[in-house]
Amino acid sequence: MRVAVVGAGVGGLVTAASLALEGVRCTVFERSGGPPDVGGGIQIAPNGARVLHRLGLGPALRAVATRPAAVELRRWQDGRLIGRTELGPAAEERYGVPYYALRRTDLSRMLLHAVEARCGAGTVQFGQQCVGLDESPYGVRLRFAGGQAHDADIAVGADGIHSVVRRALAGDAPRFTGHTVYRALIPVARLPWLSGPHRITVWLGPRQHCVCYPVGRSGAVNLVATVESDHSPEGFTRGDAGRLADAYQGWHTNVRRMLAAADHLVHHGLFDRTPLRGWHRGRIVVVGDAAHPMLPFLAQGATQAIEDAATLAACVRDPGGLARYEALRRPRVDRVVAAVRERAVRMHLPDGPRQRQRDRELAGAQLSDQDWLYGWDHPPRSRTEPSDVDPDHRAVPDADGGAAAPRPSGVAG
Ligand SMILES: Cc1cc2nc3c(=O)[nH]c(=O)nc-3n(C[C@H](O)[C@H](O)[C@H](O)COP(=O)(O)OP(=O)(O)OC[C@H]3O[C@@H](n4cnc5c(N)ncnc54)[C@H](O)[C@@H]3O)c2cc1C
């Protein structure tokens, strides 16, 4: 089976590495000229970490990522603690794998290394922008901007929210959600008030919120400040520090100091799409943001792409495997997207009775509330035995034994 993956983001690279575990080789086509130099940080919750550990990335993650002790929710003007959910050892004990936070570049690098180690150098072809696909009963042909073509049995669109592959399935377009984000990595030395155990801090206020967390051993803190707005900047632009400071007038001094400490802000809009009616057609299938973009309010977009990738790899060799993949993933992703949409409203409530009710509920929040989300486990492996790759071959040594640790009973799957 020849599989072509479009896009070497988290979804594309985890698809390639997971396919290799199933004995299926693929080629990944990425439009950027080299490994994407995507800045900023990313949280990988246990449901994604479980897949990455199974790919042998446990030691690499432990080496570079932070394992935040908790998520703290705070009031916007006075920084008062609204609620705290333990992560750290509590999450590791409950779900068998940690909750990680790391730099996106580190994640991208380790995934690329894993793909090349399992599938060989050259599996990821950079500088290849897919511009369209033609399907026939015998295969699917990918067309590229330079005029080249590549034939495959299955094409996987892992090409993000502006997916070209998705066009083969639907005629929709991304729409601006009315949120823009300012992002930066800030040296932790500039934020002395952040000392103490690593944690994810979220300040909630009317129409906006602000998140920060240390990202691994890099000595940097990831900042994401969200602002509601009628307009989106064109693409990714340099953020205007003055406008951001104005937007956060009256917010707690730690927030304002942190915004002032960011000397290279990236500003962009957030986009969404209407849910796809079908995630596959014939030989074409989508994963990650190409299938189901979601606002970052639950820090689950990349993690859901990881779940998609593992599920697709487990199904792809079976007859009707793409339909099975969609049937396994769809109810799960619909639930996550619904939770994100609800959160988008609740996180930005104006001060008043609804906000006070929300804060009372958040004060009682516990890690076990997230069992349905973080407790997800891999689907059963493909029914067909892998042919040409030893599934136990681990090019990246894994101190975790290459598999997720057993989960306690009662955790939702
Ligand atoms: C502010 C913010 C914070 C976030 N924080 C988190 C978080 O903490 N945790 C989390 O799980 N998620 C988070 N997310 C969501 C996460 O970033 C996305 O859901 C995730 O990156 C989607 O991965 P993907 O592989 O599907 O797509 P992408 O990451 O968009 O990757 C797509 C890849 O395809 C390539 N590509 C695109 N078009 C083509 C083409 N035509 N031909 C070839 N290549 C192409 C692109 O260059 C890119 O490399 C956050 C998002 C935002 C905006």
Low-confidence stretches: 385-413
CATH C-level label of one domain:
Alpha Beta
> Roughly what percent helix?
25-40%
Count of discrete alpha- or pi-helical segments spanning 4 or more residues = 11
The CATH topology label of one domain is FAD/NAD(P)-binding domain
Structural class: alpha/beta
CATH architecture of one domain: 3-Layer(bba) Sandwich
Strand order of the largest sheet: 5-4-13-14-15-12-17-16
* Backbone CA Rg: 21 Å
Q: Tell me the distance between the termini.
A: 30 Å
Can you put this structure into words, describing what you see?
Helix 1 (10-21) runs parallel beside helix 5, helix 1 runs parallel beside helix 8 (301-315) and helix 8 (301-315) packs antiparallel against helix 9 (321-346). The chain starts with a strand and ends in a 39-residue tail after the last helix. The protein has eleven helices and 19 strands. The protein has helices at 10-21, 46-54, 58-64, 88-95, 104-119, 241-247, 253-261, 301-315, 321-346, 353-363, 371-374, and strands at 3-6, 26-29, 41-44, 70-75, 81-86, 100-103, 124-125, 130-136, 139-144, 149-152, 154-157, 175-187, 200-205, 208-214, 220-228, 237-238, 266-272, 280-281, 284-286. It is of the alpha/beta class and 413 residues long. The chain has an eight-stranded mixed sheet with strand order 5-4-13-14-15-12-17-16. A six-stranded mixed sheet has the order 7-2-1-11-19-18. The chain has a domain at 3-174 and 273-374: FAD/NAD(P)-binding domain (3-Layer(bba) Sandwich). The model is unreliable at 385-413 (pLDDT under 50). The structure holds flavin-adenine dinucleotide. Residues 6-12, 29-32, 36, 42-43, 129-130, 158-160, 164, 181, 183, 224, 288-290, 296, 299-303, 305 line the site of flavin-adenine dinucleotide.
